[in-house]
Design brief:
About 50% of the residues lie in helices and about 15% in strands. With about 375 residues, the protein is of the alpha+beta class. It has 2 domains: about 1-200, Beta Barrel (Butyryl-CoA Dehydrogenase, subunit A, domain 2), CATH 2.40.110.10; about 215-370, Butyryl-CoA Dehydrogenase, subunit A, domain 3 (Up-down Bundle). The radius of gyration is 21 Å and the shape is globular. The two termini are about 30 Å apart. The relative contact order is 0.12.
Length: about 375
């Protein structure tokens, strides 16, 4: 599956490259771009095979998101988030999956797992209200995942387009084209089959032989890795841009007519490239390990899960370091509005600050696990 979709992504490159400035300015991908990505099968990565999806591994999630992000960061982010939300929908009861994918495997789901509310029990389900941010790609979605806290713990609710209002307020320095707006729900009825308790999943309820291997990976480290995927592509895009310019671009106030002839510049390129290699090694090591656990239907230990979260955070930190080095090496022209490099820099900077990727949080959880101390940071571990 991966090679076919990666080939389709390569074929999309001219379209995505040409559309990126407009998408950045309009704060959303165009309908034409989303349609082209749908046609290429980019958003079917996590959809179950019985609905026409690829039911792909976690590693493939990263590969597909990184490949798109290497062309356009916002499109890569939406690739990761749409596929990640589809992966979550695949954990809901089959009736809920039929509601979402019964007509087409290309249905897009937005939303967030950060809880809001209130919610009240009614016959056959719940009445849900609240406001949720930030919902990437919500302009193109037909469903959202909205999370709240029930008496027994946090839960995710599937809500169709007619039951939520989009608040257009996504004005950010980077990832502008993701249209990650707020959405509001006012007393929508959500039937029981569209409610997913998250506590049992965090404890490993999905790691069972009766569930397809692709959906048996430990939920929290899997979701953390998914949002790290686009960063891998953004880092490679920055490296490619700077290297390609180095044959013609000089270094101001020096004798170098070409950056590539400078030993200092060569060292910066090597430093950035090895940082990106390190990011790949951390991210794919974690994805492959989670895949092996899933194949064996075994929940990773608390220490292992903590390490995989740390792997994702460290990978993203290395990408950020590499991009900073490349921005300095390339020079101030990389910050011009006309330069794709400044958009890469902005997109990577915003994406790296996603709540799931905060290095201090992930590393504190890992440090506690290494020392055998109690995790007091987050129940999602």
């Amino acid at each position: 599956m991966s090679s076919g979709v990666l080939d389709a992504i390569d074929a999309l490159a001219p379209h995505l490259t040409a559309a990126a400035p407009r998408a950045d300015a309009e704060r959303r991908l165009s309908d034409e771009t989303v349609a082209a990505m749908r046609e290429a099968g980019v958003f079917r990565t996590a959809t179950p095979k019985r609905y026409g999806g690829a039911e792909a591994t976690l590693r493939t999630h990263l590969e597909v998101a990184a490949a798109v992000a290497a062309i356009d960061g916002g499109a890569g982010w939406l690739t990761s988030l749409f596929n990640g939300n589809s992966w979550c929908v695949a954990l809901f009861p089959e009736q809920a999956q039929d509601d979402v994918w019964g007509d087409t495997p290309d249905t897009l789901v937005s939303g967030t797992l950060k809880p809001s509310g209130p919610v009240r029990r009614v016959p056959g389900g719940y009445r849900l209200s609240g406001a949720w941010s930030y919902a990437s790609g919500i302009w193109h979605a037909s469903w959202v995942i909205a999370s709240t806290v029930l008496e027994e713990g946090p839960a995710a609710f599937l809500v169709p387009r007619e039951d939520y209002e989009i608040i257009d307020e996504w004005h950010m320095a980077g990832m502008r084209s993701t249209g990650s707006n707020r959405y509001v729900i006012d007393g929508a009825f959500v039937p029981d089959h569209r409610v997913l308790r998250l506590g049992p999943l965090v404890a490993g309820a999905n790691v069972a032989p009766g569930i397809a291997s692709s959906y048996r990976t430990a939920i929290v480290p899997s979701l953390v890795l998914m949002v790290a995927g686009p960063q891998l592509g953004l880092g490679r895009a920055a490296l490619t841009h700077v290297m390609e310019a180095a044959g013609d671009k000089g270094i101001a106030f020096t004798t170098f007519a070409r950056q590539r002839d400078s030993v200092a510049f060569q060292l910066q390129i090597a430093e950035a490239a090895t940082a990106l290699d390190t990011a790949d090694l951390h991210a794919y090591r974690a994805a492959d390990a989670l895949g092996r656990h899933a194949a064996e239907a075994v929940l990773p230990t608390e220490l292992q899960r903590a390490r995989y979260r740390a792997d994702a955070a460290v990978a993203v930190r290395h990408v950020g370091s590499a991009i900073d080095t490349l921005m300095t090496a390339h020079g101030s022209s990389g910050l011009a509005d006309a330069s794709p490099l400044q958009r890469i820099w902005r997109d990577a900077s915003v994406a790296a600050r996603h709540g799931m990727l905060i290095p201090q949080v992930n590393l504190e959880i890992y440090g506690a696990a290494l020392l055998g101390a109690e995790n007091t940071v987050s129940p999602f571990a």
